[in-house]
Amino acid sequence: MIPYLDLARANAPLRDELSTAAVSVIEGGWFILGNEVQRFEDAWASYTGRSGCVGVGNALDGLTLALRALGAGPGDEILVPSNTYIASWLAVSAVGATPVPVEPDEGTMTIRGAACAEAVTSRTVGVMPVHLFGQMTHPDVSEAARAHGLFVLADAAQSHGATVAGKPLDTDADVYSFYPTKNLGALGDAGAVVTNSEQLADRVRLLRNYGSRRKYDNEVRGYNSRLDDMQAAFLSAKLPHLRGDNERRREIAAMYAAGLGEVVGLPLVPEDTESHVWHAFNVRHGQRDRLQERLAGAGVGTQVFYPTPPHRSQAYADRSWPPLPIADRLAETTLALPVAPYLADEEVSFVIDAVRALTEELAASVVR
User: Fold this and answer.
1) Of 17, 55, 133, 274, which has the maximum CB count within 10 A?
2) How many CB atoms are located within 10 Å of the residue 146 CB?
3) What does R_g of the chain's alpha carbons equal in angstroms?
4) Alpha-carbon distance 326 to 323, whole Å?
5) How far apart are the first and last CA of the chain?
6) CA distances from residue 241 to 64, 168, 250, 277 in whole angstroms, order as listed
7) Model pTM?
8) Whole-angstrom Cα distance, residue 83 to residue 110?
9) Helix or strand (DSSP H, E) at 316
10) C-alpha distances in Å from residue 14, one per residue of 5, 38, 171, 176, 234
C-alpha cells in the first residue's frame, strides 16, 4: 500500500533533530513568543525574501489578521479564487468583508489578472490570490490589482519555497500554513505572515497578542493567535531540508508527467520550475471517483482537492452565486497522486503503472 501521505514516514529521518529541538525548548522553559519563535521568524523572512515575519497560530488566523491589518472590513469586497480551500473565503468573512469568486485559468488552476480586472467594482479593496497545489499565481494578478489601487494578500499555504523568476510575487503580505501535511510542516497547527512592510508586520504582531505590546496594556481588540516555541523549534529543524524536499517533489512530478500524459489530464508544468513546488500533483479524469476507488483497491492512496467548492458549501448557502463552471469541473475531475519527497522511484513507477492500467480498464468498460 502506498498511502497518499504517511507523516510518520515523512518525519522519521528527522527524529533525532526534532527530539533535540523539543528537549531544548523544554529545558529552556519559555514556550510562548520566546527565542525559538524569533529565530524561526527571522529565518523564514529570509527564506521567503521578505524583511518581516510574524508567527501565528495557523494560516486562517494569519489571513484574518492580515486582512484586518490592511484595513478590510464590512462593505468591502475581496476577490478570491472560486476553487480553493474554504479558509481563503472564511478569512474574508471573518473581517466582515464579502468574498467575490474569480474563476481560475483551467490549466494552472490559479487566477489571472484579466479575470480579476473584470470582477472589480467600486467596493473592491483587495485581491487574495492562492498559490494552489504549489503553483505560484501569475504576476499579472498583482499587476491588475495595482492598476486598480488594490492590496494583494497571497494565500501561500501550499507554496513553501516557490518563486516567480527567483523572486516572490508582488504582494503586500503572504500567509503561510505549517499544518503537518505542508511542504514545511510543523507537528501541530502553525502559520506565519510575511511582508516587506514594517508597519503591516507591527500591526499583525499587535493583533496576534490580544492587541497588546505590553501585558495588560491593550491598544486594540485583538486576538490570541501565536506561534508557540515548540512548533517554531520543529520548523527551524526542518527548514534546512525544504529545498531538497522540493527538488525531490519536482523529480516525482516529472516522472508522472512523462508516464501519464497519454491517459489522464495533467497539470500544466511551468517553464519556470522554481514557480512550482508540487504540494499536490493533480491529474484530471472524467471518471474520477471510480478511478480513485480502483486505485485504492490496487494499493494507491489518493486525495481529492476539493470535492465541494466554497460556493456550494453549506457555509455559504445563504448567498446566491453566479455560475462558476470551472470550479465545479475541477471539483468533479481532479485527483491528487502521492508526491511526498520520501517516495522511491520504484513506488512512483508503481503508481504510474496502476493509473495506466486502471484508466485503460475504465475506458474499456465505457466502450462495452
Assistant:
1) 55
2) 14
3) 21
4) 9
5) 30
6) 29, 20, 15, 14
7) 0.96
8) 8
9) none
10) 16, 22, 33, 22, 10
> Which residue type occupies 307?
P
d(C-alpha 298, C-alpha 358), whole Å: 9
Which grid coordinates are listed for 315?
Answer: 457555509
Neighbours of 224 (CB within 10 A): 10
For residue range 77-87, list pLDDT tens digits in order: 999 999 999 99
From residue 225, alpha-carbon distances to 194, 220, 236, 247, 341 in Å are 15, 15, 19, 32, 30
Q: Tell me the C-alpha distance between 301 and 292, whole Å.
A: 8
Q: Which residue, among 347, 327, 326, has the nearest Cα to 338 in the 3D structure?
A: 347
With both helix axes pointing from N to C terminus, report the angle between 345-367 and 288-297 in degrees, rounded to the nearest 10. 130
Question: What is the spatial distance between Cα 35 and Cα 232, in angstroms, rounded to a whole number?
Answer: 9
- Residue 248: how many CA atoms within 13 Å on its side-chain side? 16
**Own/partner pairs, 115-118, CB within 8 angstroms, 24+ separation:** 116/79, 116/141, 116/144, 116/145, 117/144, 117/147, 117/148
- What is the per-residue pLDDT across 236-249, written as a single tens digit (0 to 9) for each? 999 999 999 999 99
C-alpha cell belonging to residue 264: 489522464
Angle of the 87-94 helix axis to the 59-69 helix axis, nearest 10: 40
Q: Which residue has the cell 515523512?
A: 10
For the cut 80, the answer to whether the pLDDT of residue 368 exceeds it is no
Angle between helices 345-367 and 242-260 (to 10 degrees): 30
Q: Are 362 and 291 in contact (CB under 8 A)?
A: yes
Q: Which tens digits make up the pLDDT trace of 110-131?
A: 999 999 999 999 999 999 999 9
Return the closest-CA partner of residue 275 out of 267, 283, 264: 267
* Amino acid letter for position 286: G
d(CA 93, CA 44): 28
